[in-house]
Amino acid sequence: MARSIPEKPADSSDIAGTTSRGFMAAFDSLRIHDFRFMWFGQVSSATALHADILARSWLTWQLTGSTVSVVLVNLVRTIPMLTLGIFAGVIADRFDKKKILFMIQAWTIAVYIGIATVVLLDIVQLWHVYAYSLLIGFGFAVNQPVRMSFIPRLVGKDKLLNALSLSSIAINSTRLGGPAVIGFLIAFTGIGSAFVISALMYTIALWTTTRIRTSGAPAADRNSGGSVFADLLEGYRFMGENRLVLVLVILALGPLSFGHSWTMLLPQFVDQVLDADAGLLGIITSVGAVGGLTGGLFIASRGNIPHKGAVMIGAGLLYGTALMLFGLVTLLIAVIPLVIMIGVSQTVFRAANTSTLLENAPDRLRGRIVSVTLLDTAMGPMAGLLAGVIADRSGVSAGLFTIGVICFGIVALVAITYPKIRRI
């Protein structure tokens, strides 16, 4: 039987000396061997993800010239998150997390190789893109609950917020220059090269997973012998009985569903409003990483900050405001600071929201709780579909402004109806 999960990591001896303050404190969790390898793997997989998102959206736009089609391709990617995703948390809680991560990463590499082949052979059709989005979605649906629920075991509760912030830093640091490079690479060598890079980056991520020493076996205190459906219901029952967890999931609908769907409108915005190509699309995506990286470093260096609820509300309202303003501008010089503001607010919100959820969930349920939060992310393309219809009919600026209003409204409504959240 697997042993119980300690509040501090098993290899805490790797942590040398007293934790420094300030800038270096932001990287405290990287002193832990296993989290360090997971983090480097996340850097590689995030690089692949950004190349994938940019290439998939631009490829669809080039094939169809329709924002609705771009959104639909992204929506297909979330189908596994809405179906298999609800069981992925059970998988994370029942089986060895390290082994599951390895298998999912191998699956993802195979899918990237498949789409790269049809694009490089110049035989790609729209149905190939839909099929690819569906298959890659299966990997993402399982990967996220497994990886996120694994982190508390690697670093312990006292470093959880720091570790989650570093995860955001991994994503945003690769966005800083990665999408710009990918955008120019697509412009000069074609879209297929982006998918080749994604396959190579995931191969590195797979190798780093083999270097993790901590067992990802289920916790000793999880209820064994029950059915998958019984385990699934246990997770939903816990969320229903824990009002704070439920409120946190609802709150995330604003920034992580409606708010995040703004990226699906970027190809049309760059093409029609800024009159540019994939190169500028990559630059704008990279600029957003400046804000995300800034927000991640700030949160990571603060340790375990108090009043995370107030931080979430403030970040969510800022996110919605920035999106509304984004829908009103037409000049690149105005777009840049707004994209940075979006990056800061999204990173701060996600780190505070996820750490609070994991802190309030027992270890045996963390995979299932994370899988529920993924439903917020999975609903992003649905929100994007609404914005895409508005963009195709009334202009992309109207679509951006609409999702900003909805994002702001959800956060404001939660803050008003559940005022206790500002004090957690």
Short description, anyone?
With 424 residues, the chain is an all-alpha fold. Helix 3 (85-94) crosses helix 8 (228-241). The protein is built from 17 helices and no strands.
What does this structure look like?
There is one protein chain. The protein is 75% helix and 0% strand. With 424 residues, the chain is an all-alpha fold. The model is unreliable at 1-21 (pLDDT under 50).
Mean pLDDT: 81
How many helices?
A: 17
The CATH topology turns out to be Growth Hormone, Chain: A
Euclidean distance between termini CA atoms: 35 Å
Any low-confidence stretches, pLDDT <50, length ≥5?
1-21
Number of strands: 0
> Which class in CATH terms?
Mainly Alpha
Q: Please state the CA-atom Rg, rounded to the nearest Å.
A: 20 Å
Q: Sum up the overall morphology in one term.
A: globular
User: What is the CATH homology-level superfamily?
Assistant: MFS general substrate transporter like domains
Structural class: mainly alpha
- Fraction of helical residues: over 70%
Q: Give the domain tally.
A: 1
Element order: H for helix, E for strand: HHHHHHHHHHHHHHHHH
Beta-strand portion reads under 5%
Please describe the structure with a list of short key phrases separated by commas or semicolons.
75% helix, Growth Hormone, Chain: A, single chain, mainly alpha, 424 residues, globular
Question: What is the topological layout?
Answer:
Elements (H helix, E strand, L loop, with lengths): L32 H32 L2 H16 L2 H10 L2 H24 L5 H30 L4 H30 L2 H19 L17 H14 L1 H9 L1 H6 L7 H8 L4 H24 L6 H19 L5 H28 L6 H13 L1 H15 L1 H22 L7
Helix pairs in contact: 1-2, 1-5, 1-6, 1-7, 2-5, 2-15, 2-16, 3-5, 3-8, 3-15, 4-5, 4-7, 5-15, 6-12, 6-14, 12-14, 13-14, 13-17, 16-17
